[in-house]
Amino acid sequence: MIPLDxxxxxxxxxxxxxxxxxxxxxxxxxxxxxxxxxxxxKVIFHCIKCSQIYTGAHGSEEGECPRCHFxxxxxxx
Length: 77
Known about the structure:
The protein is α+β, with helices and mostly antiparallel strands. The protein folds into two domains: 39 residues; 37 residues, no CATH class. It has one helix and four strands. The radius of gyration is 26 Å and the shape is rod-shaped. The termini are far apart.
């Protein structure tokens, strides 16, 4: 067995714990980015004729309402 004094053991224990927490942080950050990118790439439309709220492809300025087929401009906040 390798002899370890108290300070070395404490530093190793703390270092492994910090690496574990940092690894979890990176993992969940990447997971959230993959989940949110498709949601952010859609454009929201509001039909002024039938009050339907719907989404369309990214970059489109006008979209056809799925309910009444009226062309609407995108919703801006």
